[in-house]
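To: structure desk
From: M.T.
Subject: fold request, one chain
Message: Could you run this one when you get a chance? Sequence is below, nothing fancy, just the single chain.
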Amino acid sequence: MKRRTFIAGLGSAAAWPLATRAQQAKVPVIGFLAPGNPTDPLNGGFRAGLQELGYVDGVNIRIESRWGRGSFDRLPDLAAELVRLNVDVIVASVTAASLAAHKATATIPIVMVAVGDPIGVGLITSLARPGGNVTGTSSMAEITGKQLQLLREVVPNISRIAVLWNPTNYDYQIQLVRHAESAARTTGVELQLLEARASNEIEPAFAAIDREGMRALLILSDPLWVINNQTLANLAAERRLVALEGTRIFADAGGLMAYGPSFFDLYRRSAAYVDKILKGAKPADLPVEQPTKFEFVINLKTARALGLTIPPGVLAIADEVIE
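Reply: Done. Structure tokens follow.
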């Protein structure tokens, strides 16, 4: 073999280990656990947050998503599956998924997203110093008084309001119920509480609204509604109900009004926690963030279909009006 050919061969061979090492460099794996479906629009907030920070799935991170597809009972098994994959971080959407992840591991960092009462359900010890392996964002905010006020401004002569809630999400929901009852006493309206624990209990709850002859409906925010918002909007429209829910996707689906924390923003902000953890921060040292952005959306098309005139003062404070 000629010397020049031999040296060229050495140069090529020397490059092989470097290329191999580059190909084999560990890409962080993020587990994403949610009770809904891949099409849930709120989950896009998390990916948007990652993109803002320079993360691209399949390039410098890998995302392993597990979806309950409406079945909360599946979440513990899905969480255990992510633990077996030994992911670097688990991002858990809302309370049920966060609890499932917390039960599945005490060592893998968990970033909870939009959990209503993280202290009450035992995920953290305090907002400022979470302790353990869980941190993230909370959706905890006292909004039911404002929601009732908005309903009364749209229908000033209303005296009774139906309230749909999910008692399986007990710790958070009971807080909302108590806030609603307190606000109702202040505003002088009577509340009729209606329960739905699963998707197949939603229509019977609306049948109870029919029997009671209710005209207005407040839907207390819950992950169950995210995967059933179109159903909720349709049932409310069929009964010509003045309805309000806490996430904008209700108004997007045809519901009359939505007022509450921006869940898209909470999901987007959760990406910053992942970034800090991947760079070495410990969940126990990262304070839990509460909502800072709220949104009020009115579906004017639905209002016209109901024969409602939205007061100018209410329209003026809306963040978005769907025509």
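Reply (cont.): The chain has a mean pLDDT of 89. Let me know if you need anything else for the meeting.
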